[in-house]
């Protein structure tokens, strides 16, 4: 039973429509019942659902986040894009940045750094994703990769108070695989130590589900979970939260 403040972040990726929002009633009710447990639930739906979801979650313990943004903090001629200011205006309080699915389609540390800065300016809280690929892990480069992603992604950002780190090994996202507890602990410790005596919150993400949560929750350096696939089922998501506190 943990007494820690825990984050549960639902990354819906490119899934969900207006009807899907009805499925969240059970999560809202669940969060009301669990007043004694300290946690924050953040839903990150596709941009099309940010506004309706933020309306629906008003006066609840749940918050809304976005999944990415354009790096330009001002309006501009960027067809098909939205910036952090627009997302904030639509109701987002958080934003996922640096997700490996976006890194894989070309986002560099430098671009992610610009996005983070623009999101800070817009007043969003950032969920900054980092993690190694399978090849990097096999070549024992995990720490080197994490250090590079942290140092370059957060370059010249001094105030870390609105930044949460999500450690997501690329090879564990959507695969059903999770790291061995000892490896996960080592990586989380490495990330924490990179920040000296004021470390940010560190979450784990990658194939978190209502079965492996019993193993993951025992790593007490972890401040919560970024959940992809399993967060599309309110039942599974509730189960993940419940089991974290059992
Ligand atoms: P997954 O996704 O839980 O489906 O592995 C996690 C993520 O991509 O954030």
Please render the helix and strand layout as text.
Elements: E1 6-11, H1 25-33, E2 39-44, H2 50-56, E3 62-66, H3 84-90, E4 94-97, H4 100-104, H5 109-122, E5 125-130, H6 134-138, H7 142-153, E6 163-167, H8 181-194, E7 202-205, H9 213-216, E8 224-227, H10 234-245
Parallel strand pairs: 1-2, 1-8, 2-3, 3-4, 4-5, 5-6, 6-7, 7-8
Helix pairs in contact: 5-7, 7-8
Bound molecules: 2-phosphoglycolic acid (PGA).
What does this structure look like?
- With 246 residues, the protein is α/β, with parallel strands linked by helices.
- The chain has one domain: Aldolase class I (TIM Barrel), CATH 3.20.20.70.
- Helices cover 36% and strands 16% of the residues.
- It contains ten helices and eight strands.
- Strand 1 (6-11), helix 1 and strand 2 form a beta-alpha-beta unit.
- Bound molecules: 2-phosphoglycolic acid (PGA).
- 2-phosphoglycolic acid (PGA) binds at residues 11, 168, 173-174, 205-208, 226-230.
């Amino acid at each position: 039973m943990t007494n820690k403040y825990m984050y549960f972040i639902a990354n819906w990726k490119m899934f969900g429509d207006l009807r899907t929002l009805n499925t969240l009633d059970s999560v809202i009710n669940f969060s009301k019942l669990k007043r004694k447990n300290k946690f924050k639930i953040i839903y990150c739906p596709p941009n099309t659902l940010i506004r309706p979801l933020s309306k629906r979650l008003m006066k609840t313990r749940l918050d809304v986040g976005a999944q990415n943004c354009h790096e330009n903090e001002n309006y501009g001629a960027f067809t098909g894009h939205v910036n952090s200011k627009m997302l904030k205006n639509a109701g987002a309080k958080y934003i996922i940045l640096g997700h490996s699915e976006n890194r894989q389609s070309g986002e560099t540390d430098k671009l992610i750094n610009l996005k983070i800065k623009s999101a800070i300016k817009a007043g969003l809280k950032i969920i900054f994703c980092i993690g190694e690929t399978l090849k990097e892990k096999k070549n024992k480069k995990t720490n080197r990769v994490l250090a590079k992603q942290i140092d370059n992604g957060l370059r010249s950002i001094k105030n870390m108070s609105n930044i949460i780190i999500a450690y997501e090994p690329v090879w564990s996202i959507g695969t059903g695989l999770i790291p061995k507890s000892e490896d996960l602990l080592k990586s989380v410790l490495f990330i924490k130590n990179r920040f000296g005596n004021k470390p940010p919150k560190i979450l784990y993400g990658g194939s978190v589900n209502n079965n492996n949560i019993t193993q993951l929750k025992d790593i007490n350096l972890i401040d919560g979970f970024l959940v992809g696939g399993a967060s599309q089922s309110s039942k599974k998501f509730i189960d993940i939260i419940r089991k974290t506190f059992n």
